[in-house]
Amino acid sequence: MSSCGMTTALAHAQESAPKSPVQGDEAEKKRASGHHKPHAGKPKGPHSEVVDVHGTATPPFSGGALGSKRELDTPFSIRTITSAEIQERQVKSLARLLSQDASVVTNGDTYSFNAYSVTVRGVPLDDYNGYKINGSPFYMTTVELPLESFENVQLLKGASGYLYGFNAPGGIINYQTKKPTEHRTFEVDAGYSSGAVASEHIDTGGRLFNKVFGYRVNLTHEKGETYNGSHVERYSGSLGVDARIAPNLLWTADAIYQDRKIRGAVQDFFIDPQTYPTTKLPDPISGHKDLNSYPGSMFTSHVLFLTTGLKWDISKNWKFRVDYSHSQDWRSYQSEWMSLNNRAGDYDSYLSTDPRSWSDYNQAQGILEGSFHTGFVKHDVTLGATWQGLTKYLPTNSEYVNIGSQNMHAPIISRPYPVNNESSVYRNYRSDQVGLFLSDTVTFNRQWSLLAGVRYTNFQQNSYSAADVRTTYKVNPVTPTVALLYHPVRNMTVYASYVQALENGGTVGDTYKNARQTLPPIRSDQVELGAKITRRTWELTGALYRITRGAQYANTNNEYVSNGTQLYQGVELNGHVNLPLGIVLTDSLGIEASKYKKTDPSIQGNTAEAIPTFQNMFTVTDNIPKVPGLSASAEVHYTGRMWGDATNLYHIPAYTLLNLRASYRTTLGKHRVTFRAELDNVANTHYWGVLASDYFFVGPPRTVYLNARFDL
Length: 712
What we know:
Blueprint: H1 9-15, H2 26-30, E1 61-62, E2 68-69, E3 77-82, H3 83-88, H4 94-97, E4 104-106, E5 118-120, E6 123-124, E7 131-133, E8 136-137, E9 150-157, H5 161-164, E10 171-177, E11 185-193, E12 195-208, E13 213-226, E14 231-246, E15 249-263, E16 269-270, E17 298-313, E18 318-340, E19 346-374, E20 377-395, E21 400-407, E22 425-443, E23 448-464, E24 470-475, E25 478-486, E26 492-503, E27 522-534, E28 538-554, E29 560-578, E30 583-597, E31 614-623, E32 630-639, E33 642-643, E34 651-652, E35 655-668, E36 671-680, E37 688-692, E38 695-698, E39 703-711
Parallel strand pairs: 7-10, 16-18
Antiparallel strand pairs: 1-2, 3-9, 4-5, 5-6, 7-8, 9-10, 11-12, 11-39, 12-13, 13-14, 14-15, 15-17, 16-38, 17-18, 18-19, 19-20, 19-21, 20-22, 22-23, 23-24, 23-25, 25-26, 26-27, 27-28, 28-29, 29-30, 30-31, 31-32, 32-35, 33-34, 35-36, 36-39, 37-38
C-alpha cells in the first residue's frame, strides 16, 4: 500500500492501481559482487568474500546518509536476504521473500497487484519512498521487481527519516543489483510451479580488456497458468557494468527492464463495516478457487530503471561517490474488486479500469565518507546532498462499476461488460525534495560509540485535478537521529536510538467525501533498544521499539483524514544455531500492540487493524552428512489473529502454515548441478490474508516449486 495508508485498498487503487536461513551453493555463498577497492592495489577475486546465508558474513549495510557499515555497527534492526537464499527458496515475489521475518506481514499473493506490498512493525511501507534500488528511490506501486537480478535485498526496520528523507516508519527495502564477477560465470536454471508456470533464467558475468571492463547480465522468462486459474507472462533483463578508469576510480552503471502481464486475476475482498451485518468473516475458501468473472480481466506493467555513478577512493580514509538514477513504470488494468455482503459469501463484483498511467522518478546524489581523529576520539563522518523528483500521470477516464453479484462458494458466473479502454492522461502529482545530511559516529574506545545525524529536507508536493487545479504543500523539516552503541565483547552490539521521520500524506481515494484531497505529511518518532551478537555457530538479534505516528482513518462523516496519533510497541527476536550432524535451527518471533490515540471518538483507544499480536517462523534444516550435497528444511509459520478494521468490528483469524524444502547438489562432468524442490502450505490450509483495513485476500493454496540449475 502507498504511504497514504488508506483504510481501503480501493482508495489506493484509484490513485495509481487497484491494488531464512538456508544453506546455499558454495559458489553462491563465496562469489563476491566484483566491487573493486582500488586503493588496495590488487583487484579482488570472486572468492574474496564469504557470504553466509545465515547472516554471519552478510554484505555491508548501505544506509544512505549513514554510508556503508557492518550490520553489527549499526543501531538498526536489519535483515539481509542474499541471492543464494533467493535461489534456494525459488522466490519470485517480495511477499514470499520476507515471509520468514516475524516483523513483516505480506499484503498480497504472488499474482495480485499487491504482491510487492508489505507491512513492517505494523506500518505499510511507503510506495513513494520506501523502496530503493542501489539506494535510489523507485515508485513501487503495483510493481513486482525481478528478484533474479539482485545480489541481495536488505530490509531496514523502523523509522529512518535521517537516512533517506521522507518515508514511512515501517522501514526501507533496498534492492542491490548483481555486479560484475571477477572471473567468467555462466549459470542457467529452469523452474516449474503450480498450476503450470514455467520459468527460465540466465545469469552470466565476467571481465574484459585486461579486467578493466566488467559486466553482469540476467535474463528471465516466466509463463503459464497459476494455481488460481490466472495466467502470467513475464520477460525481464538486467545489465550491470563497471570500468576501472584509474586505480582509485570506478564507474558503474545498471539497467533493469521488465514486462509483466497477468490475465484473469482478481484482487481483494472488501467490506463496509457500517453496513456489514455480522462480526465474523466467511470461512476462508481454497486458494485454488478461480474467482474471475470478467472475461477481459488483465493487469500489465512495464518497468525501466537506469542508474550510473562514480566511486572515488580519495585516500585510505576518504571516499566520494556520486550517482544519478532514472526510473519509469507504466501500467494498465481491468480488474475486479469484491464487495462482501454477508457471512454466507455473497458479494458484488466491481470492475475497476485504468487505460494507462505511469510515473517518472529521478534522483541525483553525492556522498563523502571519511574518518579522522581528534585526540583519542575517532570520527567516522558522512556528508551528502541529494535531490529527487517524482511525477505521476493518471487517466482522465476510468471506470468503477458493479458488474453483478456472486457467491464465493458457488460456481462463478461470467460477467461481460463493455469497457472504453481509451483515455488521455493528466499530471496528477509532482513532488520535489532536496536534502542535506551529516552524520558522525564518534568512537571513544573499543566499547563505546555515539552516532549523531541530522537531515534537512526542502519538500514540495503538488497535486493536480483533471482540470489542472493545483494544491500545493511545502515543508522544510529537520529530522535528527541519535544512538548510543556499546560493544561489551567482540562481535556484540547493544544500542539505544531515537529516530524521527516524515512520510507523504497521500491522496484521498474516490470512495470518500473529500476524494482526491492531498493530505499533509505524517510525522513519526521512534525509540528503540536492541542487541546483536554473532558467534561462529550461532547468532541472535533482538529489539524493543516504540513508534508514535500520525493517524489516518475514515471518520464517521466518511471523510479520510489525518488526525491524532497511532502508537506501535513491540519486540522482535531473530536467531539461528548450528548443531551437530548438519542441523541448523532458526527462529523469528514478533510481538506487537498498537492503539489509536487522540483520534475520532468512534475509534479512540481501539487496537490498530491488520497487525497480528504474535507471529513466529521456525525452521529446521538438515544438511545430511551421509548424502553429500543433500539438504532438507521444514518451516512452520504461525500468524496470530488481528483486527480487520479500525472500528474493531471483526477479526482476521489466525493460521499456521507448513512448508517443506529439499535440494541436492552434485556435478556432471566439470559442471555443478543443483536440483531444488519446495512444497508450500503442505496441509493446503485455507486462510485469509490481509491487505489493509477492511481489505483481505484469499491465501495461496498448496503450491509446488521445482528448479534445476546448471553452472556452465
